[in-house]
Structure formats: C-alpha cells, structure tokens
Predict the structure of Adenine deaminase.
Amino acid sequence: MPLPKAELHLHIEGTLEPELAFALAARNGVTLPYEDTEELRKAYLFDDLQSFLNLYYELMAVLRTEQDFADLADAYLERAAAQGVRHAEIFFDPQAHIARGVEMGTVVDGLWRALEHSEEKHGVSTRLIMCFLRDESAESAMATLEAAKPHLDRITGVGLDSAEVGHPPVKFREVYEAAAALGLRRVAHAGEEGPPEYITEALDVLGVERVDHGLRCMEDPQLVQRLVRERVPLTLCPLSNVRLRAVRVLEDHPLRAMLDAGLLCTVNSDDPAYFGGYVADNYHAVRDALGLELEQMRELARNSFLASFLEHDEERRARYLAEVDAYEFGR
Ligand SMILES: Nc1ncnc2[nH]cnc12
Ligand SMILES: [Zn+2]
C-alpha cells in the first residue's frame, strides 16, 4: 500500500494520456497531427515551460463534451488512488476550453460527474481550483470569473498558471480581489521560471495562501525566512522541474535543502501524463535521487494534508494525518 497523501498541484488537462487523447479524438472527429500514441510520445521532449505548453494546449482540442471531461477526471482519480492519493485539489484551465467554444458549464459539469462519485468509487476526496491563464489579459480573467459565478458551489479557489515570465502576479490584482470577495481560496504559480519577486508579489498583492512551485525562492534567503515564518506551503513538482529544465537533473533538486530550511514543502505531479510520473512516482524519484529518509517522506505526506483546503473538514484531515503516522514503509 502506498503512503497516503494529498495532491495539491495537478492540472487535470495534464493528465490526458496519449491513449485517451486518441480515443477522444476518434469519438469527436478531431484529427491530431500525430500518427499514433508512439509518435505523440516522441513529442514529449521539452526545452522549457513554453515548449510544453504548446503541446498541452494543442492536445486539449480533443476535449469537447461533458463526458470527455468526466472520463479525463475519472481516469486521473483511478490512477491517483492507486498512488495513495486520499485527497486531490485539482486545477482546470477554463479559458483554454472557452477559446475553443467549449463552455464553462460543460467543463465544470463534466469534471463534477467524476468528482461527485470519487469518494465512494476511488476513496479520494476532491476540490476544484479554477486557474487563470496569466498570458491572457486581466480582462479575460475577470470575464472567466464572471462565467464561473453560477458554478461557485463546486469551485473552492482560483489559481494562476501558463507562461510565467513577463506576466507578474500584479497583473491580476483586481481579479484576485474579486475572487476573495466571492469567498474563493487563492493560490498562484510563482517562481517556477519567474524570479523570486513574483513569489513575494503573489503573497503581498494576490494574497495567496499557497505558492505553486515556488522553486526559485531559494535565490532569496530573506524570502525563504518569510515563507518559513509564515508557514506558506509550496507545491513542488520535481519531475516537472526536470522535464521543463528548471533543474538540470533530479539530484540537483533543492527539495532536501528546502526541507532543511524549514519550508513547508509538498510533492506533486503537475502534468503527470507529460512528465513521466504520477505523484507517488515523484515521491519515489526524489527519495532515490536525494536519499530522503522515511521520516522525510512522512513529513512530505503530512505537509500535503496540512497545506490542503480541508479546514472545513478537520475531522477528515485528522483521519488522513493519523493514516500517515500509522503508515509502515515496506509493507
Ligand atoms: N507547470 C506549469 N506551469 C505553468 N502552467 C502550467 N499549466 C500546466 N502546467 C503548468
Ligand atoms: Zn502547474
């Protein structure tokens, strides 16, 4: 049995495996510019975030109906459960779908079809986090928030993703203020490719409660001190960082140094269909590359529940934490 954990940084569109992409393409009469899954997999060699995003947005063309989104989410939840995930806070990118004529309601209702049965079917509790594309305008983000209003009973929070450099958090100040006024939780990608200043800005201007990635905080010791002091969780994605060349090899990943510094680190998969592993694969990869002790593996799992948006369900959080404490490795 794998170590129980929460996954807090997972783009549902990034779980689109080549086999499902081709199945959905056939179902929807969409032609993909790849002969087969093998040829598609050969395109999974990325130079940076943008080169990945190009393929990520291209493949989304196969997602058209509620059932497509339901199938996508259900496939993820099944895999996640097998990797020990007990709770998943799932990002989705509505603007990327709306741009193709797929409405917000289709996306949310479709995802919900899978999420509403997730506990009984997979033993995984869930939350949905709607991300704004930071390389689109602030006006577009605001219109997206407006379009989400009829669905807010199923959306826990907002996030910020896509191409980071040149799109600082401050661009989305008003949108985040409006989201906060609606009672939505706030997170943002910052410090993946962008500088440490983007992390500070995400905290001070957007009021985020968690930083997605936050990798580059290590360049600024004062920022590290602040993140430790304020117990700001970071949702790290080690295999993603290697594939998108934020770090050269996993052995160079700063995770161990970050834990030693007292940062509240979590390990997540980001876009597992593209980066060579789901969340337990990420845990195992960092354990092997960085020589993490079993107690550090437990710390990562504990952190994932502590950093989750489960506070309206403290009983459940306590149950998950107890499962981590009781977990025996190697059994
Ligand atoms: N790692 C990542 N960074 C920014 N935007 C993304 N969208 C999907 N994955 C992403
Ligand atoms: Zn991400």
Notes: Residues 11, 14, 49, 56, 161-162, 189, 192, 240, 270-271 surround adenine (ligand 1) (CB under 6 Å).
